[in-house]
Each structure stands twice: as structure tokens, then as C-alpha cells.
Amino acid sequence: MFNRRKFIQLSAAGSSLAALSQTSFAKALNTTDQSTLPVVISTWDFGIAANQEAWKTLSKGGRALDAVEAGVRIPEADMNNHSVGRAGYPDRDGHVTLDACIMDELGNCGAVAGMEDIDHPISVARLVMEKTPHVMLVGEGATQFAVEHGFKRMKLLTPESEKAWKEWLKKAEYKPVINFENKQGLPGNQYNHDTIGMLALDAKGNISGACTTSGMAFKLHGRVGDSPIIGAGLYVDNEVGGATSTGVGEEVIRNVGSFLVVELMRQGYPPEQACKEAVMRIIKKKPEIAKQIQVGFLAINKKGEHGAYAIQQGFSYAVCNSKKQDTLIKGKSYY
Ligand code: SD4
User: Fold this and answer.
1) CA distances from 314 to 246, 306, 328, 333 (A)
2) Helix, strand, coil in percent for the chain, rounding step 5
3) Is 32 a catalytic residue?
4) For residue 207, how far is its CA from the centre of ligand 1 (angstroms)?
């Protein structure tokens, strides 16, 4: 049963937070521990290796944009990672379709969605941002654009992913239905989690973010989640900070999650409270569905203070700055 009392308490906490002035929030922040720049944070435990790669750029005074692109390319290339990049699990029809977006301190952004046959969607997203007047390319158009810019067309479906897909086909009802993904089991199981969202502040205090995923495993062909959608899976604003998300993308899109988190930080919410309020919006609108799914938000403000909040337990994020190189922080959760 949905815990109505807990829900009301948390909603009340959310409203009273909104009533607090920015000054009160500023006092509540612990600026001593977290305010070291540069800093990079990423979703999940594989964020540790990704952060270390990003750190190579940040520690030399490099730009946050270069750091986040380099960082998330690590899980994209990891043959043991079945939820991001090269070795991602396929969709229902056996196609590996990748989603990614990137955003810089100037508000520039680029994205690809449902892209096949190219192993580093984040770098294609960056090229969309830098070489075209557009924000997003999808499907074959994205692949064609990547090839025109020197990417190699390759078969992404690995023998291991193919085996997992064929196993799944044996068990699954092979027809398009709404909430298809929820039939795969509990939120956060081996199929339904682990997008990388990365946020970095460089030594100049400029922010950038990147988000990349193969999306929900065995999704309907053509399904796109939150991860490549600016404002949903990722948003940064150099005046305020940045946010990214992981989990069931449909709920994040419905609530324009990452944009919401950044706007709440603009109003003075500390990162964790902003993430919590965004999670509460999802729970308030669909309490029964929320029990079954995972959504987590991760945020950082311009001081380098960071926080996270998820619907379900188990969400973690990695932090790297000059004091902590490979710290994994357990995110708080509603359940
Ligand atoms: C999606 N948000 O495609 C992604 C999946 C994910 O952690 O984040 N999993 O909806």
C-alpha cells in the first residue's frame, strides 16, 4: 500500500521548503565539504571510472564540456556494460538503438536518439551541437550524419546481448503494449537501469553535462526515453547548476525532470532537496506506478555542492574532485 502519511509529510516538507527564502537555504548549505572545484559527478557505480577519465581533463584546467564527453565514453565503450553504448541490450526487435545528449555552459546542446550502428552516441551528439543548427537527430539520419563525420558503421549487437535478447524472447509476450518495460521485472533489475548522466564544473566554474544510454532493454522499436531529451534526462544552466536522471524515462519526460531540478535550485533549493521535490512530483501524480519503478535525479549547483534522490533504494552516484577521487555516495530514496 502507498504510504499516504509519509507522502503527506514529504509533500508538506516540499511546500515548506518552497516557502523558505534563498537566504535560509544558503545558511543550510554545507559549503565547506563540497565546494571544491573542479568537480565531476556521475550516476551509478560505473561513474567512478567515467569520472576518473573526466578528471584527466578537469585537473589540467580543461573545459567541462571536454571532460564530460571523454568521461561518458568510458561506459559507452565498456563491453560489459549492457545499458550504455557499444554493448547495450537491443530493443524488442533486436536492434541496439542508442540515445545521448550533451549541454555546455553557454546553453548549447546536441542530441541523438534511436541511433543504430555507431558506438559513441555522445560524440555524435556533440557534433550535432557544434556542426549543425539543430539540437537532435534521430534514427538513420543520426547514423548517416555520424558516418559523414568519420564514424565507422558497425554491428553493435554483441553475442552476449543477442543471447540475453533471445532468452527474453522465449519468456516475453511479443507484442507492443504500454508499459512494456515494467513487465521485465522490478525497477533497477539487470534490464532496466544504469544510464550514465555526468555533470562537471571546471576550474573556471563553468558547467557542462552529458547523458548516454541504450535505454530500456527490449523496448519497443522506436521508443525514446528521457536520456537524449534536453530538460528531461539532462539540463545545465551556468547561472544555477545542472541535473541529470536515470530510471524510467517516461516519468521523467512527463515531469520535465532535470529542468525542474535546475529551476528549483534557482529558487534556492539545495541539490538533494531539488531532486527530492522532482521525485515527489512523480510520486504525487502516479503513486501506484511509482511503487513499481525507479527514477533517480542527480544535481550539482554552481558552488559544487551535489545531491541525489530516487524513488527506490539502490541509487548511487560517484564524485571526483581534488579531495575525493573515487567516492561512491548512496542516494537517499522515498522507499
Ligand atoms: C530510459 N532513462 O531510456 C533511461 C533508462 C535509464 O537507468 O536511465 N536507466 O528511460
Assistant:
1) 12, 18, 12, 8
2) 40, 20, 40
3) no
4) 23
Rounded to whole angstroms, how far apart are CA atoms 284 and 134?
A: 35
193 lines ligand 1 (CB under 6 A): yes
* Centroid of ligand 1 to alpha carbon of 28 (angstroms): 32
In the set 195, 212, 244, 246, the catalytic residue is 195
| Distance between Cα 27 and ligand 1 center (Å) | 35
User: Which of 194, 229, 269, 176 has the alpha carbon at shortest distance from 43?
Assistant: 194
Could you tell me the CA-to-CA distances from 152 to 88, 115, 117, 119 in Å, in that order? 17, 13, 8, 8
pLDDT one-digit tens code per residue, 221-257: 999 999 999 999 999 999 999 999 999 999 999 999 9
The answer, yes or no, to whether any atom of ligand 1 lies below 6 A from the CB of 195, is yes
- Are 279 and 334 in contact by the 8 Å Cβ rule? The answer is yes
Q: What angle do CA 309, 230, 151 make, to 5 degrees?
A: 115
Task: Give 117's DSSP letter.
Answer: S
Neighbouring residues of 133: CB distance < 8 A, sequence distance ≥ 6: none
Contacts with 80 (C-beta within 8 Å, 6 or more apart), sequence order: 87
Under a CB-based contact definition with an 8 Å cutoff, are residues 306 and 300 in contact?
yes
Which regions of 248-326 does DSSP assign to beta strands (E)? 295-301, 306-310, 316-321
10 grid coordinates: 514529504
Rg (CA), the chain: 19
Per-residue model confidence as pLDDT tens digits over 296-317:
999 999 999 999 999 999 999 9
Which atom of ligand 1 has the smallest separation from the CA of 215? 3
What local confidence, expressed as pLDDT, does residue 33 receive? 46
Protein residue whose Cα sits closest to atom 10 of ligand 1: 249
215 lines ligand 1 (CB under 6 A): yes
Note the residue count of the chain. 335
Q: Is residue 249 in contact with ligand 1, taking CB distance under 6 Å?
A: yes
* pTM as predicted: 0.88
Ligand 1 contact via 225 beta carbon (within 6 Å): yes
